[in-house]
Design a protein that fits this description.
The complex is a heterodimer of chains A (116) and B (114). Chain A has 116 residues and is mainly β. Chain A has strands spanning 5-7, 10-13, 19-24, 31-38, 42-50, 53-56, 65-71, 74-79, 88-95, 106-107, 111-115. In chain A, the strands form two sheets. In chain A, strands 2, 4, 5, 6, 9, 10 and 11 form a seven-stranded mixed sheet that branches. In chain A, a hairpin with a 2-residue loop joins strand 5 (42-50) and strand 6. By secondary structure, chain B is mainly beta. Classes of the chains: A mainly beta (116), B mainly beta (114). Chain A binds chain B through residues 4, 31, 33, 35, 42-43, 45, 48, 50, 55-56, 91, 93, 100-102, 104-110, and chain B through 32, 34, 36, 41-46, 49, 51, 90, 94-96, 99-107.
Amino acid sequence: DAGVIQSPRHEVTEMGQEVTLRCKPISGHNSLFWYRQTMMRGLELLIYFNNNVPIDDSGMPEDRFSAKMPNASFSTLKIQPSEPRDSAVYFCASTHSRALRGEKLFFGSGTQLSVL
Amino acid sequence: AQSVAQPEDQVNVAEGNPLTVKCTYSVSGNPYLFWYVQYPNRGLQFLLKYITGDNLVKGSYGFEAEFNKSQTSFHLKKPSALVSDSALYFCAVRDRESGYALNFGKGTSLLVTP
């Protein structure tokens, strides 16, 4: 298995532009998580999907952030418009919810976002 | 609410010496506890987890962790550190009854010197 695949690996954009981050979870996994990592705040959960349905989006910082999971093999995290304070590493992680609470998460390599 | 605290931003240890990375947790119910490691420019990798049973959990790369319910701690340990163990280590918790996602600590940077 190729693991959780995120794209792009690096994104540099200008303030005000739309940014779309992409994630392909591990095949067979039905739970997907988006995390953001910064030096100041560490790892923060943004949103969690189960069976393609958003379960908890309380971590999404503002209305500028939105996430979708149109099918079991693809999710996007969109920021529109982007701001410099959105600069961070964004991680996607997946697992299977059959024993969710005891299951480990598998992380992608992350997208390093820089908003100038 | 569920949370973990990693009281040390950085831990320095000489190669060959034992290492400990500390973690304490706070959950309303019984916890599931995890340790992850992050190498530079990489995603997090699972090391070990405590679900139930033996309080001493063994994981990848010779790491182990001890669940201590009375002290609400889950410290990561290794008997003999390697330079290649230098990385960022994260403790995480999930509440058995109500949690879905993992809540991570802020991370501890481990530096093992030759």
